[in-house]
Amino acid sequence: MSEAPESPQAESPATSRRTLLCGAAAVLAAGGGTLAVAGCSSSSSGSSGTPAAKTPVDVGPASAVPVGGGTVYRDKKIVVTQPAEGQYKAFSAKCTHAGCIVDQVKNQKIQCPCHGSMFGITDGAVLDGPAPTPLPEYTVAVEGGNLKVTPS
To answer: pTM value?
Structure first.
């Protein structure tokens, strides 16, 4: 008496639903289609350290941001500047070169300590490389004397 051959499915590991969905998303993206699939990341941290999209973040008192300068909120990965009295600008504090967090605003420039990139306090534009692109700009408002920053 002969035994029935094993099915091909028994030879390969089971494909998880996540793997299947992520693979389908990759195929669609490669073909020019778009599909948003949550949970494809292999990271389990659950937090990127950046403000959640469209959720205002209270960074503190507007009085903490000097005119002609700025303040880096390292833990929130946000930098807020005040180019002119009462005019506030907010940007991602993550340098577009290597992802370092900018560390200061000095001489009207947002400065990155890692490789010397510098950005403008009015628009986040690259003033000195190697950063390839400007800092992403966020929306900022003053509410009750505090700064509320919302990613754009």
So the answer is: 0.65
